[in-house]
Amino acid sequence: MPTVRENILTNVKTTLETITVANGYVNTIASVQRWDKRGNALRQVPCIVVNAGQEEKQMSPNPLFSCRLSVYLDLWTRQDEADSQPTDSILSSLLGDIEKALMVDNTRGGYAIDTSIKSNVPFETVEGQPHAGLTIELEILYQHKQSDPSVAG
Predict the structure, then answer these.
(1) pLDDT at residue number 22
(2) Residues 111/152, Cβ–Cβ less than 8 Å
């Protein structure tokens, strides 16, 4: 049985996969992937790579751990030379769709107490570099039984 943490990360990925023009968003995300130490394919863009970050745990008064999980979304896109839009305008549009999708259900399918969007930072780029993007930091609060991390609190 997957842990509550794994269910939350799976929910983030499946939520981001709903970002399509057909679903009422401005953009279509071509690929959403979980982080892979062997490398992630960035051929289909825009692409989002979901990375689990630091997690803090505290004992609650009852038999639960209260957890604060950082999740990082690396948003990758590529801009053709013929495209006259400012790159930051493209990134702002994609960021708006990501925020909209994530806030449809801030409980991550009932596994979390809350999801907050904490920050976004543009990738450092060199002029003429094909890829651009943002790292978006989420903070997800959730609880699980101290004796079983697969049981939500």
Answers:
(1) 98
(2) yes
Cα–Cα distances in angstroms (integers) from residue 33 to residues 30, 44, 46, 107, 129, in the given order: 10, 11, 11, 21, 22
What is the pLDDT averaged over residues 116-138?
90
Transcribe 21-73 into DSSP letters.
GGGT-SS---EEEE--TT----SSSSEEEEEEEEEEEEE-SSSEEEEEEEEEE
Q: Which two structure tokens, joined as six digits, stand for 62? A: 């009852």
φ/ψ of residue 101, rounded to 5: -65, -45
3-state secondary structure of 126: coil
Q: For residues 50 and 35, is the Cβ–Cβ distance under 8 A?
A: yes
Q: How confident is the model at residue 111 (pLDDT cuts 50, 70, 90)?
A: very high
Q: Which of 122, 120, 83 is nearest to 98 (CA)?
A: 120
pTM above 0.90, yes or no: yes
Query: Which three-class secondary structure state does DSSP give residue 92?
Result: helix
From the list 98, 107, 100, 118, the residue with the least C-alpha distance to 4 is 107
Residue with tokens 């008064």: 61
pLDDT class of 62 with cuts at 50, 70, 90: confident
> Hey, what amino acid is at 51?
N
